[in-house]
Amino acid sequence: DITRGKPDPEPYLLGARALGVDPAACVVFEDAPAGLRAGRAAGMRTVALATTHPAGELDADLVVEDLSALSALVTDAGIEISVWD
């Protein structure tokens, strides 16, 4: 169903639409600049994983070394994502 790939926001927008979620309520986890650009263009918050590119190349709302730096908790209000110190 995707006609344009990253950095176009279409993949993320299609995913949000399929889930019935407002893009502004979504968080994109990406390890590549093109994916982060797509997430931002979709109006989503972005978390960069510095696993394949240096942190300085990753323009995101948050940059972490990898997923082990994060924890997620499902609540009635949604999902809370925290960064380990």
Keywords for this entry:
flat, three-stranded parallel sheet, Rossmann fold, 85 residues, 5 strands, 2 helices, alpha/beta, two-stranded antiparallel ribbon
Structural overview:
The chain is of the alpha/beta class. It has a single domain, classed as Rossmann fold (3-Layer(aba) Sandwich), CATH 3.40.50.1000. The protein contains 2 helices and 5 strands, in the order H-E-H-E-E-E-E. A 3-stranded parallel beta sheet has the order 1-2-3, covered by helices on one side. A two-stranded antiparallel ribbon has the order 4-5. The chain starts with 9 loop residues before the first helix and ends with a strand. The model has no long low-confidence stretch (mean pLDDT 95).
Brief overview, please?
This protein is an alpha/beta fold and 85 residues long. The protein is built from 2 helices and 5 strands; from the N terminus they run αβαββββ. The strands form 2 sheets. It has a 3-stranded parallel beta sheet, with helices on one face. A two-stranded antiparallel sheet has the order 4-5.
Low-pLDDT runs of 5+ residues are none
- Cα radius of gyration in angstroms: 13 Å
Class of secondary structure makeup: alpha/beta
Number of helices: 2
Number of discrete domains: 1
| Largest sheet properties | 3 strands, parallel
Shape: flat
Percent range of helical residues: 10-25%
**How much of the sequence is in beta strands?**
25-35%
| CATH topology category name | Rossmann fold
Q: Average pLDDT, to the nearest integer?
A: 95
Order of helices and strands: HEHEEEE
Strand order of the largest sheet: 1-2-3
| Spatial separation of the terminal alpha carbons | 40 Å
